[in-house]
Amino acid sequence: MPSNIKLNYVEFPAKDISATKKFFEDAFGWHFIDYGPDYTAFENEGLDGGFYKSDLTSLASNGAALLVLKTSNLAQTQSRVESFGGKISTPIFSFPGGSRFHFIEPSGNEFAVWCVTET
Question: Which of 23, 45, 64, 86 has CB 3.0 to 4.6 Å from 103, enough for a Cys bridge?
Fold first, then answer.
C-alpha cells in the first residue's frame, strides 16, 4: 500500500456559515478563506478543511466521524467553547491517557477536544 496517501482535508455541512466561522475564529483563532457565499475553508489547523452550506449536521450519534481537537488546557478550552456559543454535549470525562469533552458548534456539528493526562 502506498505510504504517501494521507488524510488531507475534511468538509462539514453548515446551516449558518457566518455563525460557524465566527465561533471558530473566536474560540480557537482559526482563519478562513471564503469561496463564495456557500463555502469557506480553513488551513493550518492540524487538518485543512471547510464548511459548505447545508441543512444537514455531522453528529457522531448519527454515525458521522468525530473530529477531535487537542489542547493543553481542557478546562480553559471548554470555557472558551461555551463563552463563544458552543453547547457542551458530553461533559469532560477521563479515559486512559487523557480527558475530553464534546461540543456542538452553532451550525449543529459535533466536535470533541482532548488533553493528555499529566503524569
Answer: 86
pTM of the model: 0.93
pLDDT at 4 (0 to 100):
85
Q: Which helix (H) or strand (E) holds 95?
A: strand 87-95
| CATH classification of the domain holding 15 | 3.10.180.10
Range of the domain at 67: 9-116
Residue 75 phi/psi, 5° resolution? Answer: -65, -45
Which grid cell is 90?
458530553
Instruction: Give the number of other Cβ atoms within 10 Å of residue 74's Cβ.
Output: 19
Whether residue 1 is contained in a domain is answered as: no
Question: Which DSSP category does 107 fall into?
Answer: T
* Contact by Cβ (8 Å): 98, 116: yes
